[in-house]
Amino acid sequence: DTATTEIYTQAFVGSVRCVQETGSTNDSVSKFFGQCGNVTHVRVAADLEGKPKGFAHVEFETAESVQKALALTGQALDGRRIRVDVAGTKGDKHGGNNLSLIHI
């Protein structure tokens, strides 16, 4: 009967400015969150036609980096104030079951 503690190393980022054609969104998101720790993966959500949906998931090496990222809520990224939350598991309000993702 051992309780397990989930460690979240992924942040949900809302209000991401999407410039998919140039790839600048992926680069700028990764650089912006690099101040919080090692960014291991960035996924910008897109619909089935490849149109960006305006949010992203940023995966970090550590949970501590996610905590630092939370403090960046309200900061400007590419001219837009972003919202940062801890990303939950697939199927919750940020999990997005029917998304295609752009990987860097």
Main beta sheet, described? Answer: 5 strands, antiparallel
Cα(first) to Cα(last) distance is 40 Å
The main sheet orders its strands as: 6-1-3-2-7
Strand content: 25-35%
Radius of gyration: 14 Å
Helix content: 10-25%
SS element count, helices: 2
Structural class: alpha+beta
How do the SSEs run, as a string of H and E?
EHEEHEEEE
Number of strands: 7
* Contiguous runs where pLDDT drops below 50 for at least 5 residues: 90-104
What does this structure look like?
By secondary structure, the protein is an alpha+beta fold. It has two helices and seven strands, in the order βαββαββββ. β2 and β3 (52-60) form a beta hairpin. The radius of gyration is 14 Å and the shape is globular. It starts with 9 loop residues before the first strand and ends with a strand.
Jot down its keywords.
104 residues, alpha+beta, two-stranded antiparallel ribbon, 17% helix, globular, disordered C terminus
Quick rundown:
The protein is α+β, with helices and mostly antiparallel strands and 104 residues long. The chain has 2 helices and 7 strands, in the order βαββαββββ.
Give the helix/strand layout.
Elements: E1 10-14, H1 24-33, E2 39-46, E3 52-60, H2 63-70, E4 76-77, E5 80-81, E6 83-86, E7 100-103
Antiparallel strand pairs: 1-3, 1-6, 2-3, 2-7, 4-5
